[in-house]
């Protein structure tokens, strides 16, 4: 059965992959974005710039909605300039999310897929992969806001009958990636020696094509209703392995210096960059077995394929 799907944040690199996958299924896609002329081919654009304030009054009369996939968010920032970062995250990620959910319900939606983050659970895995049943302990305002949004949505779903599905990805990579992953590729491509040759801790990642595939499953599979799912590539790499694989895909020299992680942590404390260092050398493994068991989902792309596509995009655009 084809659906009418509203994708918020449809102009982001995850939103574009989701929209493309839905269109391939034959679904009708409306991209809810902040900037005009930014959605992909075949997507009907809807521009809204106000954190969804009053959106129910602006909902297009001819826009039928079966499902919302909510990707738009105030994203994690390493150096946040807001006077009150938690309040700023809450306004967009909690209040804005609830506004969209209420408006979608009024427009006829029966399901709301919320793309949260593994940061709503924890910053590290404390010795074993994080599961959906673990007690959440977010470590920063972004993670707190995502957890609060999850809980507020579930409460609204119980009250209204709107089916809520929560998806918690770890770091997402793929063509169009930004932030730390892009910086790592730039450094490797430039042949800069990096102190990443002795890191044994593993971190879960998810290729954008795998995440999009999982989100479409969560939007369309009746068994997903009310569920919370962690989504990964199901193969975890160390940062050393990741950097070496990227160097090979980028046709760049492998210049990884084997600096002990303890030394890197000391350097992080001395330079005030402990959080950035920990994101490179700390363990953050995520258990995605639940979505495989409940929905029969399997990632359609391997890590090698994902890194190949990401590197090919980088070479063609930088």
From TrEMBL:
Q: Show the InterPro entries listed in the entry.
A: Epimerase_deHydtase, Lipid_A_modif_metabolic_enz, NAD(P)-bd_dom_sf
* Keyword list, A-Z: Isomerase
User: Superkingdom of the source?
Assistant: Bacteria
- Pfam families linked to this entry: Epimerase
The NAD-dependent epimerase/dehydratase domain extends over: 5-225
Q: Please give the Gene Ontology molecular function terms for this protein.
A: isomerase activity
Primary enzyme class: isomerase
Query: EC number(s)?
Result: 5.1.3.26
Q: Membrane-spanning regions, if any?
A: none
Isomerase: is it a keyword of this entry? yes
Q: What is this protein called?
A: N-acetyl-alpha-D-glucosaminyl-diphospho-ditrans, octacis-undecaprenol 4-epimerase
Q: What organism is the protein native to?
A: Paraburkholderia saeva
